[in-house]
Amino acid sequence: MDAFETISGKAVPLDIINVDTDQIIPKQFLKKIDRAGFGVHLFHDWRYRDDAGTEMNPEFILNYARYQGAEILLTRENFGCGSSREHAPWALQDYGFKSIVASSFADIFYNNCRKNGILAVALQADEIQSLFEEVEANEGCMLTVDLPLQTVSSPEDKVFSFEIDEFAKNCLLNGLDDIGWTLQFEEKIQQFEQQARSENPWLFVNA
């Protein structure tokens, strides 16, 4: 996956609490195992007026002209609650979001974001409110999410710090999903396997 360091991008304010994974990507679109192509179904029941997804809902925030091309999703508490479906971050990423800034996240969703290269940032509720007010008042407002410095900043010189686990930070900075992280130790894994075969050959008779 791509490494994440710093992004300055347009933000879209989704002013809804407790957004669950079925709202992020409804169950009828979970038939594929490939990660691509889910963005068109993101927030399907809110973005479209029809089941086929052909009629846009002009009242939904992501469909506003001023927020097209947004790369940062600004939202409220308990984002990503519900099921453990990894399709939720796949849909957000395929749509174009690189970072989600909220006051809190469901744990499984938060970890799934890290595994897919999306930086989920948790700020205090009053800090989220301050960013909402600035983004809504200024069309084209660009926020900057800086992973090395662990800050979110705005054009009005607001700078908010966030916490992140060192392991998660390292993985995002180096573009490592779980497989990529494991492959860093490929040589040691091979050495272990060779030693195991030598010391316990009966375990590998049919291998």
Summarize the structure.
This protein has 207 residues and is α/β, with parallel strands linked by helices. Helices cover 32% and strands 15% of the residues.
Give your account of this protein's structure.
The chain has 207 residues and is an alpha/beta fold. It folds into two domains: 6-175, Alpha-Beta Barrel (Aconitase, domain 4), CATH 3.20.19.10; 177-207, no CATH class. Helices cover 32% and strands 15% of the residues. It has eight helices and seven strands, in the order E-H-H-E-H-E-H-E-H-E-E-E-H-H-H. Strands 4-3-2-1-5-6-7 form a seven-stranded mixed β-sheet. Strand 3, helix 4 and strand 4 (119-122) form a beta-alpha-beta unit. The longest helix has 14 residues, at 186-199. It is globular.
Layout of SSEs?
Blueprint: E1 6-14, H1 21-24, H2 44-47, E2 72-75, H3 87-95, E3 99-102, H4 107-115, E4 119-122, H5 125-137, E5 142-146, E6 151-153, E7 159-161, H6 166-173, H7 178-183, H8 186-199
Parallel strand pairs: 1-2, 2-3, 3-4
Antiparallel strand pairs: 1-5, 5-6, 6-7
Which regions contain 5 or more consecutive residues with pLDDT less than 50?
none
Q: How far apart lie the N and C ends?
A: 32 Å
Task: Write down the CATH class of the largest domain.
Answer: Alpha Beta
Bin the helical content. Answer: 25-40%
Helix count from the secondary structure assignment:
8
Mean pLDDT score: 91
Portion of residues in beta strands equals 15-25%
Total domain modules: 2
Largest sheet: 7 strands, mixed
CATH homologous superfamily classification of the largest domain: Aconitase, domain 4
Which class of secondary structure composition applies to the elements? alpha/beta
CATH architecture annotation of the largest domain: Alpha-Beta Barrel
Following the backbone from N to C, one meets helices and strands in this order, namely EHHEHEHEHEEEHHH
Global morphology: globular
* CATH fold field value of the largest domain: Aconitase, domain 4
Number of strands: 7
Measured on Cα atoms, how large is the radius of gyration? Answer: 20 Å
Strand order, main sheet: write it out: 4-3-2-1-5-6-7
